[in-house]
Specification:
about 35% strand; elongated; OB fold (Dihydrolipoamide Acetyltransferase, E2P); six-stranded antiparallel beta sheet; alpha+beta; about 400 residues; six-stranded antiparallel β-barrel; conserved putative lor/sdh protein from methanococcus maripaludis s2 fold; 4 helices
């Protein structure tokens, strides 16, 4: 019994008894550690799935469609033309007898510029004057004879009231003579009027030998000298003179189709010319043809320019600051939001997180923005940096950007 008790209380026995709870404790720790690792792995896997789903939806920068009045000034080329210009040809053929102006001469309306001579026209006038004098003398003679014969008939008619004094035949003859004189007098009166018309025509033809200025202006071209034979325009013959009015000019601007809306008569437009680079001139819109040139798709608008000091000259090509207006506010988007492909031009609208392609037409361009026309509305969200790679009906995460 003592040996058995002694064996149970030995150190080895005590070590074996204490090892059993220690093993159980280690096993329990291992179980808890495995459970924690499994939980962490599950948590990490769930987080990774969520991130994958989030990263699958692309984020795009968007801006809002802006509605505003178009305020744009574009530079367009123009051309200054004389307000009035005429190539002077003689109405009749003749020799230049005298010419009193040259290139650069300032002239007044009605001023004599040149004198022609044509002997045949002078002869025609002299003949017309002689013919008028002749028929006038015949008319006076016929009027005198009519007065005499008409008086004779009146006296015979008065005497015929007494029976047997004047025969009926005598009275009838006197009456017929008076009527014939009256007809001849009327005919000669008409001949006188015809002779006067012929003389007036000859005088007008003679007046064509005097070349006068049709308006105030300047002589810009002279092609004849005294002694030259000139005549009416034949197509290839140059004019005697060319006169232009430059105290008032026409500024012709070819306005492209995109900018013709909102052009109003009376609007003021600024322009500059290379001859005076530090100065700005003003013109007034005066004439709008309301028709486009089918070849250039532009509308030639004319503006009036006052030029009292004759500083500006026809033929100059000014740079015109053309204001562009619209009758109604327009929609604008950034230029990067417009996609141009072979299929057309469009913007990408984001609605309820989905993309939509909206076909548009482009208008005027301003600094960084472009005018668009299409199925868009103010405050619509469109992709800022659009491209055809972003297809319709794609789920996106819009990120608003302030432009």
């Amino acid at each position: 019994m003592r040996e058995a008790t002694s064996h149970q209380n030995s150190p080895r026995s005590l070590l074996l008894k204490s090892a059993v709870p220690l093993a159980a404790l280690v096993a329990l720790c291992l179980m808890l550690l495995n459970s924690g690792c499994s939980s962490t792995s599950a948590s990490d896997g769930s987080s990774t799935d969520t991130q994958s789903q989030t990263s699958a939806i692309p984020t795009v920068e968007t801006v809002k469609v802006v509605s505003q009045q178009l305020k744009l000034v574009v530079s367009l080329p123009g051309e200054l033309q004389p307000y009035e210009a005429v190539a002077i040809y003689p109405k009749v053929s003749g020799f230049v007898k005298w010419i009193g102006v040259d290139r650069g001469s300032r002239v007044r309306q009605g001023q004599l510029l040149a004198q022609l001579e044509a002997p045949e026209i002078v002869a025609q006038k002299a003949a017309a004057q002689a013919k008028l004098q002749e028929v006038e003398n015949q008319r006076v003679e016929a009027e005198a004879k009519l007065a005499a014969d008409d008086g004779t008939y009146s006296r015979l008619k008065l005497a015929s009231a007494t029976p047997g004094v004047v025969s009926d035949n005598e009275l009838e003859v006197a009456q017929k003579v008076a009527e014939a004189d009256r007809a001849r007098a009327i005919g000669l009166r008409n001949s006188v009027e015809a002779a006067k018309a012929t003389l007036h025509s000859a005088e007008v033809m003679e007046g064509y030998l005097r070349i006068t200025a049709p308006f105030d202006g300047i002589v810009t071209e002279r092609n004849v000298h005294p002694g030259a034979l000139v005549g009416p325009s034949s197509g290839s013959q140059p004019p005697m003179l060319r006169v232009e009015q430059i105290s008032r000019l026409r500024l012709v601007v070819a306005v492209p189709e995109t900018y013709v809306a909102g052009v109003n008569v009376g609007a003021k437009v600024n322009f500059s010319v290379p001859a005076f680079p530090d100065r700005t001139f003003t013109a007034t819109v005066a004439r709008i043809p309301d028709s486009l040139d089918p070849k250039t798709r532009t509308m030639p608008v004319e503006l009036d320019v006052t030029n009292p000091d004759w500083e500006l000259h026809p033929g100059m090509f000014p740079a015109v600051s053309w204001p562009v207006h619209r009758p109604q506010p327009s929609l604008f988007v950034p230029q990067s939001a417009v996609v141009r492909t072979m299929q057309g031009t469009f913007v990408i609208r984001v609605r309820n997180g989905n993309t939509e392609w909206v076909a548009v037409k482009q208008g005027a361009s301003t600094s960084g923005a472009v005018e668009v026309f299409g199925d868009l509305y103010p405050n619509d969200e469109v992709v800022l940096h659009a491209s055809e790679d972003l297809q319709p009906n794609i789920r996106v995460n819009p990120k608003a950007v302030k432009e």
